[in-house]
Structure formats: C-alpha cells, structure tokens
Amino acid sequence: MKPNNASPKRFVIYARCSTDDQSKGEYTTLDAQVHHCQCFLEAKGYELARVVRDDGYSGKDLNRPGIQSILHEVGKKNEKTFDGIVFLRLDRLSRNMRDLWAIVDLFQQHNVEFQCVQESIESVTPQGRFFMNMLGSLASYEREQIGQRVKASALARIRQGRRVGGILPYGYKFVPDGAPLPDGTQPRKAIIDEAVAPKIILVWRLATQNKSIRTIARELDRIGLKTPKGKPWRVQSVLGILRNRFYCGDVKWNDEIHPGKHEALVDRKLWEKANRMISANIPGHRFSPKPKTYIYLLEGLLKCSECGSYFITKHCHGHTSNPFYYYVCGRKNQGLGCEADAISATSFDKAMIEFFRNSSKDQRMIIDAIGTAIEEARAKLGEADKNVREVEAKIESLRAQANQLLDSILKGDVPKGPTSKERLQKLEDKITELELRRDKLEAQRKAAQISSESADFIHSNIVYIMSRFDEAEPAIQKRFFRTLIKEIIVQKDRLEISMFLGKSFEQNLPHTTEEPKEKRPATDHNGEALLTTQALGLPKCQEMLPG
C-alpha cells in the first residue's frame, strides 16, 4: 500500500487527431480524448502534469511536435516533470509497430509508465505488455491496409488517365471542372497556362538543338522565366521538367504509364527526340560520372555517451550540390529523445587519421594518454603473480596429502573402505577446484601483463597501420580502423577510445590488395586500453559538427 505521505504520480495527457480522424466521432476529437483521460486520472488518484496535443498529425511516424517534446523530456533523466503518460487509445500514440516498441523501450529504460484508457493497458504489468503487443500489431496491420487501399486507388486513377496527386507540373494550372460534389468538394482539371507555356517549351526545343542543360537553364533566366518559387534555374530543375511525361500527354505512377486526359503542352515527337539526345552520350549532354559513395571509416565504432546507442551514418545535400556526410546517434535519428550532436564524418575521419599518424611518430602521445592505466595494470600484474603463487602452493600441498594418503592405503596403514575413498575424493575435488581458479588467475595475469606493456603494443600496431594507410583503398582503411579500435564513446568534450591489444597486427591486418571484409577482429584479444581526445589532441566534437 502506498504511504500516506507519498506524492501522487504525475501524468501527461497525450491527445492526437489527424485530419481524417476528425469526422469519425466524438472519441477522436482532441477535447474528448483529454476529457476521458482526465476522468481516468481522477479515478486513479493521479496528478495531471500537463496536456500535450498533436492536432492534424498522422500516427504513421513520430514526426509530431507534441510527442517529440515528451520524448525529449524523457531522455533528460532527472529533469522530467512527469512520471507517466496517459492516452485514450493505442493508435493515438502510434500506428507504427516499430515506433511503438521504440517508445516502450525508451519509457522502460527511464521508468516512465503509460496508461491506455480505452484498452485498459498498463505498461507495468506483463498482461499489459502482452495486450499492447497484440493491439499494436493490429494498428500496424490497419496502417498497411490503408496503404494497400491508397495504392489500389492510385492505380485506378492512373489507368483512367487522371493524375494521382502531387505538385501540378509548371506550365499548367487548375480550373473548376463541373458542379461541386455533395460533400462540397470542387472537382478540378489541369489546363495549359498560356502565360508560361510559350517560354517553358524552349526546354525541349533547345535540347533538340544539342544545347546543354546548363545552357538551357541560363536561357530561361535570360528570357525572364523564373522557377515556380521565383528563383533562378538549376540543372536538376530543368532536367525534372524535360523528363516529365505529363508534358507530352501521359500520366505516370511508379512504373505504369498511360495516356492522360489533359492536353499535351509538348508534341510527343519533340519530347521523345529531346529526351533521346539528353540520354545519349554526345557533346553538350555528357555528364560527369556520379562520385562514389563516401566510405565512413568509423562506421559501427561510435557510441553515444548520452543514451548508449551507436551512431549511424547519414548524408544530405545543402544549398550546393555537394553532399554532406555525418554521424548521428541512432536514437536521436529515430526521434527518441537523445540530444547528442551530429558529427561531420569527413572532419571526424580526418582528425582520427591525423592523430594516428602523429602518434605513430611519437610514442609519448600514447604514454601520456594511458599512463595511469599502465600503472594500474602493473600493480594488478604484481597482485596476479602473488595470487597464482599462493594457489599453486595450495595445489602442491593437497597433492602431497593425496599421495601420502594413497601410499598409506596401499601399505595397509590406513584401512581400505568408504571412509578412505571419501577422504581421497575430497582431496581430488579441492585440487580440481584450485586448478580451475589458477587457470583464471593465469588469464588475468596475462591480461595484466599485456596491459602493462600496452604502449608498446599500441605503438607498434599504429606504426604498422600508418605505414600502409595512405596507399590503401578507403574500404581497406576502414578495415584497418575496425581491427585496431573496439569502440569510440563520443562525449561532448572528448572521446574515449577502446583499442584491441595482445596480438601483432602485422599478422592480423589485411594487405592492401585483399578484398575488404566486414568481419571484426578475432575475439582472442586479451585486453584493451582507454584513450581520450584531451590527451590525444583530437579536436573537440563541436568543431566537427555540421553547420
């Protein structure tokens, strides 16, 4: 029973209502959801912390401001202003099974309860978790069914020559098409925009004259035709228009192409000729090859100190065409409350290469970084030697006792029988037990010995790697790091690097001519050393963040 002086649990009420939900009855409105949740809290004797609403957001993902505010506060550990969350139905929280389980896992890690009013589900009971799994599967099934119905509807529209949706191609505009429907919706149809069409048709005409895409973009700017957003033309924008089949009278969805009901802006023969010339490898239309995808040298090695998740790799394009590659915490990427900063992959990888290159030339960098660890390892080595000697002495003493007892039995000084046999068996059991303990101590001593000599191990391995690093392909460089490093814990002001020890990398690392493999080093490493960026001279994480 709860003590009389115990504070009531504080709960956040979460309510969500998508655009489609608003016509399905009183239970789906935000006010109705909040009302039922408040009644539930009053009946349970819980305290209301606050109400969070997501109005007009779908439950297919977690890209909702309300749920994001809750998840971010959950990740702040001691800064939470609530003990749990309450909502009307499970599908109000999420319709995605993966997101639902990610939320449950996050709540369990931070001791946050949740209550589902209508389905009577409590996260603190096994029965509640079971029903939550079952109902979550049904919600996920419903979302997939909706997707199938949308797909079927899209196929039906495209086969009737009607657009599926999206932004109307530039050069067309909507006009009313007939009387409004009974629900008030006004049907529309796409017609050619005479103010834009004479200028936009230059795209195909210039392409058939063997003009480059960049030249076409400059010509559109010269004649005063801006993009739909009023900006100068870019190569990709021109290509998007030139390749769009809507302009020649077709409609397309996925891989299906059908004649459309709208009027073609461009003659089909002109459209096809322009696209043939663009696709051909001829002067004026020759494109530079697509650059190879960036190989993240530290992929799978970075671990977030905030939440314990591993960093994943991401890339994006900014205002320029150059991609930006970065590492980001996996939990933050899912929107589950972690606030760890993203890190520029190119800057981070270069900084790590530079550190290992410098440390290969100066062993003192390594000694300064792990000096304390070496001293502790040497102390453990002395203690391990002492323990091994003590256990071996006990084993020898017990063996002498067992041999003496056996001799006495054979000589007849001690009578044969169950008693003598039992005494002999006890001695053998003690010897076996001590031998097992000695083996464990030997392993600990070996690990301590390797750790005490870790500076030499690390330096020799780094020297071997860096002597071959620059000539290796990026995939091989990545394998070099995976063979050398166990994991890197990313903190706000430093890095902690756990490195494999105890084996010569000259035998363990690949040659640069070998095909890269994604296997980690063998598991027979006997120790690891801990390095930090403050000692290593690596730039702080903030200096490697995306702008």
From TrEMBL:
Residues of the Resolvase/invertase-type recombinase catalytic domain: 10-161
UniProt-recorded Gene Ontology molecular function terms: DNA binding; DNA strand exchange activity
Keyword entries, A-Z: Coiled coil
Residues in Recombinase domain copies: 169-284
InterPro entries, per database record: DNA_bind_recomb_sf, DNA_bind_recombinase_dom, Resolv_N, Resolvase-like_N_sf, SSR_resolvase, Zn_ribbon_recom_dom
PANTHER family linked to this entry: DNA RECOMBINASE-RELATED, DNA-INVERTASE FROM LAMBDOID PROPHAGE
Record protein name field: Recombinase family protein
Organism, scientific name: Candidatus Abzuiibacterium crystallinum
